[in-house]
Structures are given as C-alpha cells and as structure tokens.
Amino acid sequence: MHSEPLGKSISEVEVTNISSHGVWLLARDKEFFLAYEAFPWFKDVTVSQILNVEEPMPGHFFWPDLDVDLDAESIEHPERFPLTSKYDLKKD
Fold first, then answer.
1. Total structural domains in the chain?
2. 79 within a domain of the structure (yes/no)
C-alpha cells in the first residue's frame, strides 16, 4: 500500500481581533495578545498584512508580508526579549 504525498500543511493559526491596543492571535486553542507597545511591527500596517500569518511549526509564527518571525515564548514573555534596532545601537 502506498500513501499519497502530503500536501502543504494547513496552519491552525488565525488573527481573531485587531484593536487600537494590539492584535489577538489564536493558535491551537491558545490565545495570544500582541500589544503594539511590545510588538510595534503590527501597529501601522494593513489589516491584510496582519491577517497573513503562518505557523510553520507549532508555537512559531511568521508574517511573510512583514518579515516578522515570533516564537510563542516571546509573545507570552516579551520582557525576556527586549527589542533592539539599528537606531538604538547608533545612539550616543
């Protein structure tokens, strides 16, 4: 007996709400809140860019239109993963 080749994995992740404070993400029956204060990449982008999210592996989220890659742990505990930008590194 031969199995058919597997197709593209269907992600179980979806954006359930976008508010003036952040983005709500539902993945595998777990809800995550991405506050713009901790995740500024989502603040001034289009809804379609936010809605285009993938979960290439469990607990790992990717927004291809924004080139944003986040792990569930960094969403749950953003204080453990401080943001650093090139601008911050150039400050005197």
1. 1
2. yes
